[in-house]
């Protein structure tokens, strides 16, 4: 299966670049896993409205039906396919405790094709400028055609808005994927979190001050001493019930503090350090952040759910075997070469086709994909017909 996928010009003096078909399939599998993580097991056929305010789900906003200047609204994955196909959609990634708005009063005469019996409005939903395709404190779209500064977007776990790293008012740690972030505005709205930040967020030093080689060792080896030390300092929860063992009160009395500015990045498992005594639970509820004590609220838990769902579906196949790999085993080397060349050509063309949607911040619909493959078939037929005139 060591098949040539691309060839360098002979005068360049470079060796042929090769890739195995197994490598190609594994790369595609990784992309599929990422997509499954984003969707989190969302149903692409049924509207999520009957489920009520879903704990966390993939959401979209329709610029065609609810443009800027109107009322913000969010729609579920299935409605983005069935009810808003061909529309200008904003991908919102995920939102917590949201109920699908498709077809309610915010959409005028339009009705949901998947579930018609809906309330006029979902009063429990929370909205932001994200629903009009705007993000961060700069209130700009993403991607932003006028922004020439390369920067990543990071989501606040409280307000769920997305921020440019340079607009967070702090240095962004190197290993963002291992942490959760709370923006400065949300920290100020929940001032008791600054006490936790002074004690817990400081432990983040174990991540970004370690030499790279040690950091990789911590990632790969779950029983490493460094990781055990970090876990010991971040895991474990405070006593339930009585306020006599209030962890927050102990932190306040310690006198330890930090500068009350900038976003805060929290280390892995930091939520388990939050006090869950009776008074603190009331404090979380009053501030609207009770979800912080729920580890299943994290985006990581949501993504793992999506990956697990995908893996379970794959395992349901015939002994978990990939049908494409099974078919390739029955082909000779020439046929395998032809397949990999055709596959790579299609992959390149599909990537170029999808880049247009990414540049415009639009969601790819099933109709867009059908159109791509129809164009592929049309070009293939034209090449086949043209070849007839060169037969000897």
UniProtKB/TrEMBL annotation:
Keyword Zinc-finger: yes
Transmembrane segments: 193-218
EC number in record: 2.3.2.27
Protein name in UniProt: Putative E3 ubiquitin-protein ligase UBR7
PANTHER family according to UniProt: E3 UBIQUITIN-PROTEIN LIGASE UBR7
Catalytic reaction annotation: S-ubiquitinyl-[E2 ubiquitin-conjugating enzyme]-L-cysteine + [acceptor protein]-L-lysine = [E2 ubiquitin-conjugating enzyme]-L-cysteine + N(6)-ubiquitinyl-[acceptor protein]-L-lysine
PROSITE patterns from the UniProt entry: ZF_UBR
Pathway: Protein modification; protein ubiquitination
UniProt keywords, alphabetically: Isopeptide bond, Membrane, Metal-binding, Phosphoprotein, Transferase, Transmembrane, Transmembrane helix, Ubl conjugation, Ubl conjugation pathway, Zinc, Zinc-finger
Zinc finger (UBR-type) stretch: 45-117
GO cellular component term of the entry, any: cytoplasm
Name of a matching Pfam family: zf-UBR
Class of this enzyme: transferase
The protein's role, per its UniProt record: E3 ubiquitin-protein ligase which is a component of the N-end rule pathway. Recognizes and binds to proteins bearing specific N-terminal residues that are destabilizing according to the N-end rule, leading to their ubiquitination and subsequent degradation.
Lineage: Eukaryota, Metazoa, Chordata, Craniata, Vertebrata
Single annotated GO MF: ubiquitin protein ligase activity
């Amino acid at each position: 299966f060591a098949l040539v996928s691309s060839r360098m010009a002979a005068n360049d003096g470079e060796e042929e670049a090769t890739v195995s078909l197994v490598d190609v399939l594994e790369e595609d599998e990784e992309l599929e896993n990422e997509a499954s993580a984003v969707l989190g097991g969302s149903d692409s056929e049924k509207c999520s409205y009957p489920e009520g305010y879903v704990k966390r789900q993939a959401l979209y906003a329709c610029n065609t039906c609810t443009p800027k200047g109107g009322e913000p609204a969010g729609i579920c994955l299935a409605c983005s396919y069935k009810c808003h196909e061909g529309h200008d959609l904003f991908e919102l990634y995920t939102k917590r405790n949201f109920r699908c708005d498709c077809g309610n009063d915010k959409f005028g005469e339009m009705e949901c094709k998947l579930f018609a019996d809906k309330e006029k409005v979902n009063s429990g939903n929370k909205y932001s400028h994200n629903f009009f395709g705007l993000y961060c404190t700069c209130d700009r779209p993403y991607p932003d055609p006028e922004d020439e500064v390369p920067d990543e977007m990071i989501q606040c776990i409280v307000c769920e808005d997305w921020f440019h790293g340079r607009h967070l008012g702090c240095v962004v740690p190197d290993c963002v994927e291992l942490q959760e972030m709370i923006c400065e505005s949300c920290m100020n709205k929940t001032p008791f979190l600054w006490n936790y930040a002074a004690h817990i967020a400081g432990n983040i030093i174990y991540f970004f001050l370690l030499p790279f080689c040690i950091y990789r060792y911590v990632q790969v080896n779950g029983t490493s001493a460094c990781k055990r030390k970090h876990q010991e300092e971040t895991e474990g929860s405070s006593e339930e019930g009585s306020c006599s063992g209030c962890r927050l009160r102990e932190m306040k009395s310690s006198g330890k503090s930090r500068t009350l500015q900038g976003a805060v990045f929290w280390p892995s498992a930091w939520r388990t350090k939050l006090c869950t005594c009776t008074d603190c639970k009331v404090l979380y509820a009053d501030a609207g952040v009770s979800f912080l004590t729920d580890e299943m609220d994290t985006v990581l838990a949501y993504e793992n759910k999506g990956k697990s769902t995908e893996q379970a579906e794959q395992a349901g196949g015939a002994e978990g075997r990939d049908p494409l790999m099974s078919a390739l085993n029955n082909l000779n080397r020439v046929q395998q070469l032809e397949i990999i060349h055709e596959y790579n050509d299609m992959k390149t063309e599909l990537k170029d086709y999808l880049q247009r949607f990414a540049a415009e911040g639009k969601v790819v619909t099933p109709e867009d994909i059908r159109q791509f493959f129809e164009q592929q078939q049309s070009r293939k037929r034209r090449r086949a017909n043209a070849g007839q005139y060169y037969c000897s």
